[in-house]
Amino acid sequence: MAQKEQLIMSAVIKRSLPPHDGPVLCVVDMHTGGEPVRIVLSGAPAPEGRTLLEKRRWVRQNMDWVRRVVMLEPRGHRDMYGVLLADSEDPEAHLGVLFMHNEGYSTMCGHAVIALGRFALDYGLVKAGEGPETPVKIHCPCGPVQAYVSQSGAVRFHSVPAFTLATDVTVDVPGHGKVVVDVAYGGAFYAFVRADRFGLDVCTSRTRDLVDVATAVTASVKEQVKLSHPDSEDLAFLYGTILTDGNDAYSEQPTANICIFADAQVGSDGISPLLLNGRVTPEPENGGTGFLIAHGCSSLRITKVPILSITCCIERQKPTVLFHSRTTGRFKYSSTNLQNKS
After folding, report:
1. Could you tell me the residue ranges of all domains in the chain?
2. Which of 26, 45, 67, 138 is the most exposed place for a label (fewest CB within 10 A)?
3. What is the C-alpha to C-alpha distance for residues 258 and 275, in angstroms, rounded to an integer?
4. Is the overall model pTM greater than 0.85, yes or no?
5. How far apart are CA 165 and CA 109, in angstroms?
């Protein structure tokens, strides 16, 4: 931040705050299609650790007061999402970030990445290029994520490699009996299950009912399914459950899903991903099986496709797909961009 802006911020703080004897946190509030992102600019201690994942552990154990102050009431709310800036060990990263929410700390967040792309340019961390897009490399706890900020302000990004951990896993969910779920990773692990398995509809059922079911599924999967990640055990945790509409065949009609993560928090991104369940038909020569979790407000289940590093841009897939987010409206998901159409 420029020296002049620092002086202005300091003057504003001195003028607007009542007498106090504690630390002063300066934050920037942003949103992505209505999803909140609160970025801590200054006032928080620098996280300790050699790597970003080590810093995440240190913050959780030694600095959780920052999360509670900026995420929870009276300054925040149960659906607030936050970012703590941290030094990255990656020399090519423009910024390192730690994600936080109403329950703790995530490893990836799509809507926050989109906001951070704009933040990096708006606050001069990255100089806008002369081309149609400016690349911004964001080091997240799950790994490097490449955002692209267009001159119009739109943002797309490429995330870390996504993969399926398990399919057709049966878990016992209290009150619902045996439930079959899939578990996949795209920066964070999610369980996936059709809403109609519980007699619910992701578009018309009460949000409270959907949240209760998803929360029960999450608890059961955490208890009964062992998660693992090839890079780090710090990534081997279940972030939440995504209820799908069950529309597996490709169609020009939007598919609908709802994502419940952390402490019953409702989101539309992945990085709280939504699942486009089998909506993209792969090229015939592709082999293998995998979930492609697209964290730019969507996730993709694709069969017979290699594990790729993707998110808002799926370079080997041609069809344009529409999906309806319960929280942020309708999006167009194509090979080049993700646009909010509402």
Report:
1. 3-158, 163-340
2. 45
3. 8
4. no
5. 19
- 3-158 fold: Diaminopimelate Epimerase; Chain A, domain 1 (3.10.310)
Contact 260, 211 (CB under 8 A): yes
Residue 22 vs residue 179, higher pLDDT: 179
Q: How far is CA 149 from the centre of its chain?
A: 18
Residues 133 and 268: their CA atoms lie apart, in Å, by 25
Residue 247 — very low, low, confident or very high, per pLDDT cuts 50/70/90?
A: confident
Annotated active-site residue in 26, 109, 203, 313 = 109
223 pLDDT band, cuts 50/70/90, is very high
User: Quick check: is 26 catalytic?
Assistant: no
Mutual orientation of helices 52-62 and 64-71 as an angle, nearest 10°?
80
Architecture field, domain 163-340: Roll (3.10)
CA nearest to 98, candidates 141, 51, 63: 141
pLDDT band at 338 (very low <50, low <70, confident <90, very high): very low
Report the pLDDT averaged over residues 168-178.
Answer: 97
Question: 45, 86 in Cβ contact below 8 A?
Answer: no
